């Protein structure tokens, strides 16, 4: 049986990078991945300007100013942010200036208006001299032309969007999103909103996985709920493979009498890379590839099993397809014993918090693979290798943030 580590190695070496790119407008870049470096087209600041409201002066002319012996200078001009006509500062005068306005030639210091007699007259008394050069933002001090704003492979966040807007960048070249089809299988499943029979259950996997896929920067192009019918499953799989880069299925991948997914994948020429991983939950997880470079994840039907497998393997595959490194894992201290499995790598949901300056993990109370309520309050996925004994409280345990969770 494949180990968790081996499964990750297989996915890392067989998942293709999507080479196709597309130009996307600024306001649609959130979550997309840059396909090329983005650089500054000009210096930042573009011109030397005032860092606060006050008066631009020659430092030497107000250097000796004090409360007891103020220096008085006439105002020769006034500059607001956006001013286009800026005259040089006349000797023996000051310039009334607002934050962001260009510094006139000859001025070398801005005195805050609070340290003067204020804006109310044409002659200003200076009661204090700041350091020479104070309160001035110099052209290029933040960034020079050609400086790197964001490297290829960066997943774009509001920070990059704001930075691009600052430099007037309206469009960026990004990787095409992976196209994903999701198929869920089961006679017992009904879609939310439908009337439900006493022994039927609502389908949570379709909506849950679609949300996870979109959150990972991919695009859902097909969603299908199927009955346990061999021909219908085969036809739906063939269509999904044709229209997608990634196919994700849940249900029908085990070895029961009505589990038709494995045979359908074989019939369609999908090459099995692994099937069954030594883990709990999610043992029957399947991963395969097609001759045209498509990838297929067939996940167990139990909601927690399906979600754990997607978080552990699907997220890393979608990241690699977009040229992004999978999110790193980290360690935390257990608040309670972790119920390990003797033969299988075990995953549980938990909640991370900072206690006494240490990162600690509280395990979710619900642990069964059908109990999606285990997600309530959880912000991480916790894991432990096979062990004959539980990990005691206080042990270090490996964790991964849930992609939608807030840090503790």
Query: What percentage of the residues does DSSP assign to strands (E)?
Result: 25-35%
**Uncertain residue segments:** none
Query: Looking at the structure, what is the overall shape?
Result: elongated
Query: What is the count of DSSP helices, taking H or I runs of 4+ residues?
Result: 7
Query: Main sheet?
Result: 6 strands, mixed
Q: Strand pairing plus helix content: what structural class?
A: alpha/beta
> What Rg is obtained from the alpha carbons, in whole angstroms?
31 Å
What is the helix content? 10-25%
Intertermini distance: 36 Å
- What's the total count of β strands? 25
Quaternary assembly: single chain
Describe the strand arrangement of the main beta sheet, using strand numbers: 15-12-16-20-19-17
pLDDT averaged residue by residue? 95
In short:
The protein has 408 residues and is of the alpha/beta class. It is 18% helix and 29% strand. The chain has helices at residues 4-14, 59-62, 158-166, 205-215, 230-243, 261-267, 303-321; strands at residues 21-25, 38-39, 49-50, 54-57, 71-79, 94-97, 109-112, 123-126, 136-137, 148-150, 171-175, 179-185, 189-190, 201-202, 219-226, 246-250, 271-275, 279-280, 286-289, 295-299, 330-334, 345-355, 358-363, 380-384, 396-401.
Notes on the structure:
It is a single chain. The chain has a six-stranded mixed β-sheet, sandwiched between helices. A five-stranded mixed β-sheet has the order 7-4-6-5-8. It has a five-stranded mixed barrel with strand order 21-23-22-24-25. Helix 1 packs parallel to helix 7, helix 4 runs parallel beside helix 7 and helix 5 crosses helix 6 (261-267). The mean pLDDT is 95. It contains seven helices and 25 strands. A hairpin with a 5-residue loop joins strand 19 and strand 20 (295-299). The longest helix is centred in the last third of the chain and has 19 residues, at 303-321. 18% of the residues lie in helices and 29% in strands. It has 408 residues and is of the alpha/beta class.
